[in-house]
Design goal:
heterotrimer, A mainly alpha (about 350), B alpha/beta (about 375), C alpha+beta (about 500), B: about 375 residues, alpha/beta, GMP Synthetase, Chain A, domain 3, four-stranded mixed sheet, 12 helices, about 30% strand, globular, C: about 500 residues, alpha+beta, 3 domains, 12 strands, elongated, Spore_GerAC-like_C (chain B), lipoprotein (chain B), Ger(X)C family spore germination protein (chain B), germination (chain B), membrane (chain B)
């Protein structure tokens, strides 16, 4: 969740027209399935992360390689979202500030929160969730200009565009592969499956609301023109005491984006510190943030580059989050069968 | 301790860096409240803007400029040369379009920067001026608040009373791009005073085709299902024997409380059929003919007949001009998708050939406080 | 270099020069003992040495005490009088007839020294090797009166005094239970402050208690002047603006916190007691909340939290909106704002800083002024200065309103330390807002939040029940649920016994 939702309605509409909302439901289903598979895998090795599991089954070197792959993946993901966040801020709220200043500014709370242990991150996410719940309600207000007719007829072009669009919307559901790493820290492991399903469903509801809202608000002929229809929609809100709510809303939305970025950053330094063998994340985190800053200063980012990078990550994400657990689960299951047979 | 030093260092760094991204406080800005786009006699683009003056020493409270420019964004540098503070467009309340602009087909592209630049407010009300824009933008009546405030409140009030459409830039954009709908914009005219005269109707390319009076605008709003709380009609009872006389003794005013309209879309014999069933609950607020002359049931029938004929006139006008301000294209797309797709590009023509049927059903809820 | 060389004498490694503890014991010769006393207490004019002959045994004796810190009446009536004039026929073991409750015997000099310094009187008897210590201490103290800062409308008008024993007595008044245990500790080399740690033995979490004791034992100072100093030594996060231990002057508040499962530390000579572990919402509670009805109490609680946010964010929001995001303001307000700001030569953040600093100075100066002058200066200063500043064109009137609202909001917070914390946090927020607008505000809120959720008070999470989300505790945070709905102690205290009341729903409500 996070930055993806801002451009989601447009991306869906570009490929699937006003039936894009069904794409979300399909993605949700796939994401939930994948998360449940991950939980099943982790059940075989409850006290370690995926890296320990891989080391246990395949040996030390494969474990190391996997750590590096995961570290790179998370690092890239965090990078994409972080820079995108800064780009959005510059585009919508503070047009005269440089991107690297924004990156520096956002690094301060990121460093402070992500360098402690996972407890703090969890508390932070919990709190932010409840604090930003009201933003969803604000979304209901532009609906008085809604034209539900835009959604009809359903399935006008058939199923094919819907199925091909699934891979675009997967990006917004990514993030559940963190469950690979979080599992050993859970205290009530039996509730893990429930938790994962609820999390995915919440994402589903939020996305659906935003997408359907955008579809009924904008005509299908014009929705592909707006780059970020989600924010544009809020521009029409006008109360007696406050106007141009999208500025306030977006500033609050930074909180939600941060709950996406921070776990990824944490995961990156977790992986890298596993490689080195230490438990102290803060130095790694400081390094990571400095590298980010240097990258932004040396290669000033633009929306195109970022979108390009995002597409690369999407493909990597599909493999790591969907294909990999499936294969791994299959392997572990078969392994378990053999083991039982060997014991007999 | 180390952490604190680092934090302080960072703060200083940011403070130094941020002097690059300067901000301009409120009083040093020239906040445009009205933007005007017009064409002069030689078809040159004229952009005008009006902004309030905050300085107490200045005699006038508003400053207005008008000049030739290539586009709206290009005009900003000329305005900057004239005004005191930095010209900013973040609070533009009204956009005035001269009628000469609408007489050409592809004028909508001038407004590109308004949608592309995120700092523009998209709630700007769009108004067409029947005449040159300079008439309106330089108008400073002594008995009214500032022009921007006055116009904005006037259009909001008129929209609230269902006399004119509410067109913000957002709605205009949607109407321009939507293939099943043609735009309609409020219209004002300056004679001795500024007044709203109704709604201008444009065709799908943006060219002006016709105007509707205030009464007809209410009907259009009912057809669009966008009527707000108060809709009032004054209806002459033509079927009564006597002449009206000086005091218009055969007039009746009704206040429409609730409107329920249903549209049925069909495709038959190579054309679309739209069937409107409108059910109105009305209250009688003014009855100039004596009580007892006409019974309630007859009243209902008379009102129905009158409204039906008015709707017919409106629809004929719409179809003659080959436009669709009502938005029946949306219904066609929703319910008859394949047929609609064939005629999507020339929906106005298709609508002109289709059959629109309106039937009104009136229910008189009450006669008011007196009999 | 010369400057430094002069002060090059290394301070001695131990803090007290004459720290040699006298190793000897009391001798049986009276004169030797008296000589010893006079050598220890030279230059002490309030030392009284009263030679007397005990009537019962006809032996020489000397009574030694420090005048001023002993209760003369007790000495005369209960010590000297029986010793000098009573002579009973039974030759029992108790030959020293002193009608006092607290009597000790000792023969080591350090004990005698500290006893005299504590206000007790010491009796040396010739030919006996023990000295007798009688508790007659009576340090000057003030009567029990209402607290100034934490006054309440409906609650008791009793506040702690500076005597530790009296304070313990006041708490005992509220809790007549044998589980109320008191641990006594002494801290400080020269000050020898007595601390009393009070808790309910079957309710409090033993780990938290142990943590507190460990921390106090590690303290190595000359003296603890008051409870605030002690609190600073045992805090978890001294660099945080938020206080992690609650200081209060009200016995009813302290007792109710003990009943919730918290630990109260009474510091002798300080009218404040320390309550720990606390959570963030404890700083927003007053006794009045529990004396009023629940709807009123909930409303006022909500107002306090609202005031908290307003005090931190209002000036910053003003700066952010005026400098960066004026589009957010509706048109009419914008016109009047523009007109009022137009005359001001300063940018908004300088204006805000000037006003805020002026207000802080006024507030701090107001504490020192006696009431009669204070009121006049307050009114004159506030109104006249504010008005004059607006007229002179230094600040705009909207700024004055903002600053006044902020000040009022920050005074709503019942706890003084939390209020001060808010006043401090306001300034970095203003700086961030003046640099980055709303984004700066959001980042500031993020930093504050990140700091807040990591805070701990004596090892328990500080932000509970908000940061680690504990829904059962929410009954008493933002709104006060009716008393009969709150039956359990809060989860944040980690108490080991949780139920404090059974269902007590009033009969009239039942259907």
């Amino acid at each position: 969740m996070g930055v993806g939702v801002l451009t989601l309605p447009r991306e869906l509409a570009e490929q699937a027209g006003t039936d894009g909302w069904m794409v979300i439901i399909i993605s949700w289903f796939l994401a939930t399935m994948a998360s449940l598979i991950i939980i099943q895998i982790m059940k075989k090795y409850p006290n370690g992360t995926i890296l320990d599991l891989l080391t246990h089954y395949f040996g030390k070197w494969i474990g190391r390689v996997a750590t590096i792959i995961f570290a790179l993946y998370f690092a890239l993901l965090a990078n994409v979202i972080f820079i995108r966040e800064a780009l959005f801020i510059q585009a919508w709220i503070l047009p005269r500030t440089e991107v690297y200043v924004l990156i520096l500014l956002l690094s301060i709370p990121s460093y402070q929160i992500a360098r402690k242990n996972i407890n703090i991150l969890g508390r932070y996410s919990e709190f932010v969730f409840f604090m930003t719940l009201w933003t969803i309600i604000i979304y209901l207000i532009p609906l008085k200009y809604a034209h539900w007719l835009h959604l009809f007829p359903v399935l006008k072009e058939g199923w094919l565009p819907i199925l091909t669009t699934v891979k675009t919307s997967i990006f917004s559901f990514l993030g559940f592969e963190i469950a690979f790493f979080l599992y050993p820290f859970l205290q009530k492991k039996e509730k893990a499956s429930m938790g994962v399903v609820i999390a995915n469903t919440l994402s589903l509801l939020a996305f659906l609301m935003v997408t359907i809202g955008a579809f009924i608000f904008y005509s299908p002929d014009e929705i592909t023109i707006y780059n970020e229809p989600t924010i544009e929609m809020l521009k029409v809100l006008e109360f007696k005491f406050i106007e141009r709510l999208e500025i306030v809303f977006f500033s609050f939305y930074l909180f939600v984006i941060s709950t996406t970025v921070l776990p990824f950053m944490f995961m990156t330094v977790f992986c890298t510190s596993q490689l080195v063998g230490k438990q102290d994340y803060s130095k790694h985190l400081a390094c990571f943030l400095l590298i980010e800053f240097a990258v932004v200063v040396l290669f000033p980012p633009s929306f195109d580059e970022n979108t390009h990078l995002q597409q690369v990550i999407e493909k990597a994400g599909i493999i790591l989050a969907f294909a990999f657990p499936l294969c791994l689960w299959g392997y572990v299951w078969v392994h378990g069968l053999f083991k039982r047979r060997a014991i007999k | 301790m180390k952490r604190m030093c680092l934090a302080i260092l960072l703060v200083f760094l940011i403070a130094i860096l941020s002097s690059c991204g300067r901000h301009v406080p409120l009083e040093d800005l020239t906040i445009s409240l009205i933007l005007g786009v017009d064409l002069d006699d030689e078809n040159n683009l004229i952009i005008s803007e009006s902004s309030p003056v905050f300085n107490k020493d200045a005699k006038k409270s508003v400053e207005t400029y008008q000049l030739k420019a290539k586009s709206i964004r290009a005009s900003r540098k000329y305005f900057d040369a004239l005004a005191t503070g930095e010209v900013t467009a973040a609070k533009i309340q009204i956009l005035l379009l001269g009628k000469r602009v609408l007489e050409h087909e592809d004028w909508f592209s001038i407004l590109d920067t308004v949608y592309r630049n995120p700092t523009f407010s998209i709630n700007t009300r769009v108004i067409v001026v029947d005449g040159p824009v300079s008439d309106v933008i330089f108008y400073k009546p002594a008995d009214k608040p500032q022009l921007a405030l006055h116009l904005k409140e006037a259009i909001d009030k008129n929209n609230g009373r269902s006399r004119t459409v509410n067109n913000t830039l957002q709605v205009l954009h949607r109407q321009m791009y939507e293939k099943g709908l043609t735009p309609s914009i409020s219209e004002i005219k300056k004679e001795k005073n500024l007044k709203f005269v109704g709604v201008s109707l444009l065709n799908e390319n943006g060219k002006y085709v016709d105007s509707l009076s205030i009464q007809d605008s209410s009907l259009l709003l009912i057809l669009k299902d966008e009527q707000k709380q108060e809709v009032t009609f004054t209806i002459p009872m033509k079927s009564l024997d006597d002449e009206g006389g000086i005091f218009n003794k055969n007039e009746l005013s009704i206040d429409v409380n609730r409107v329920k309209s249903k549209v049925k879309t069909k495709y038959d014999q190579d054309k679309f059929h739209f069937n409107y069933k409108i059910h109105m609950t009305v209250t009688i607020v003014e009855q100039l003919f004596p009580v007892g002359k006409v019974k309630e049931k007859e009243l209902e029938k008379m009102i129905e007949k009158e409204l039906n004929s008015r709707f017919k006139v409106l629809i004929k006008k719409i179809q003659e001009n080959k436009i669709d301000p009502i938005g029946l294209g949306l219904y066609a797309r929703a319910y008859q998708y394949e047929q609609y797709k064939k005629v999507e590009e020339h929906w106005g023509k298709a609508l002109a050939e289709s059959n629109i049927d309106v039937s009104v059903d009136i229910d008189i809820k009450s006669m008011g406080a007196i009999k | 270099m010369l400057f430094f060389r002069r002060y090059n004498q290394k301070p001695s490694s131990s803090r007290q020069l004459n720290n040699s503890l006298h190793q000897g014991l009391v001798s049986s010769e009276l004169m030797d003992n008296i000589a010893e006393i006079q050598s220890i207490f030279c230059d002490t004019p309030d030392l009284i040495v009263r030679y007397l002959v005990i009537k019962q045994t006809q032996s020489q004796a000397a009574l030694i005490y420090l005048n001023g810190i002993t209760d003369s009446k007790t000495i005369f009536n209960h010590v000297l009088n029986p010793l000098l004039f009573e002579d009973s026929k039974d030759n029992s073991e108790a030959d020293l007839k002193v009608s006092l409750g607290h009597i000790k015997e000792t023969n080591t000099w350090p004990q005698i020294e500290s006893a005299i310094l504590n206000g007790e009187c010491v009796l040396f008897v010739d030919k006996r090797t023990e000295a007798f210590i009688y508790d007659t201490s009576n340090f000057p103290k003030r009567p029990i009166e209402d607290t100034e800062i934490e006054s309440s409308l409906n609650g008791p008008h009793v506040g702690f005094t500076e005597t530790g024993n009296d304070n313990v007595a006041l708490i005992r008044n509220h809790i007549h239970n044998r589980e109320l245990k008191i641990k006594e500790m002494i801290v400080g080399e020269r000050g020898k402050s007595k601390l009393f740690i009070l808790y309910l033995a079957d309710v409090v979490n033993p780990e938290v208690l142990k943590e507190l004791e460990n921390r106090i034992q590690k303290i190595d100072v000359d003296s603890i002047i008051n409870a605030g100093v002690l609190a600073e030594y045992i805090e978890d996060h001294p660099y945080s603006p938020f206080p992690q231990l609650l200081l209060t002057e009200r016995p009813d508040f302290a007792s109710s916190e003990i009943l919730q499962g918290r630990i109260v530390t009474v510091v002798d000579r300080s009218p404040n007691v320390i309550i720990g572990p606390v959570t963030f919402d404890s700083f927003f509670k007053t006794t009045d909340d529990y004396s009023s009805r629940w709807m009123v109490a909930s409303f006022i609680r909500l107002m306090r939290y609202f005031g908290f946010f307003m005090a931190i964010f209002l000036p910053a929001t003003y700066i952010a909106i005026i400098s960066f995001h004026f589009e957010v303001i509706p048109l009419k307000l914008l016109l009047s704002l523009g007109a009022s700001r137009e005359r001001i030569p300063f940018p908004p953040y300088i204006e805000a800083f000037i006003m805020e600093l002026t207000l802080e100075m006024l507030r701090e100066a107001g504490i020192r002024l006696p009431t009669k002058i204070g009121q006049t200066v307050g009114i004159v200063g506030g109104i006249v200065i504010g008005q004059a500043a607006v007229d002179a064109g230094i600040v705009s009137n909207i700024m004055v309103i903002v600053v006044a609202l902020t000040a009022v909001a920050s005074f709503i917070i019942p706890n003084y330390e939390m209020g001060s914390a808010i006043r401090i946090i306001r300034f970095p927020m203003m700086i961030l807002a003046s640099l980055f607008g709303f984004v700066g505000l959001t980042v500031g809120l993020m930093i504050l939040l990140g700091h807040f959720i990591a805070l701990e008070s004596l090892g328990t999470p500080y932000g509970s029940p908000i940061a680690p989300l504990r829904f059962p505790d929410w009954k008493d945070v933002f709104m006060r649920f009716p008393q009969w709905a709150i039956n359990k102690r809060p989860l944040s205290t980690k108490a080991i016994q949780m139920i404090k009341a059974n269902s007590n729903r009033p009969k009239g409500d039942k259907q």
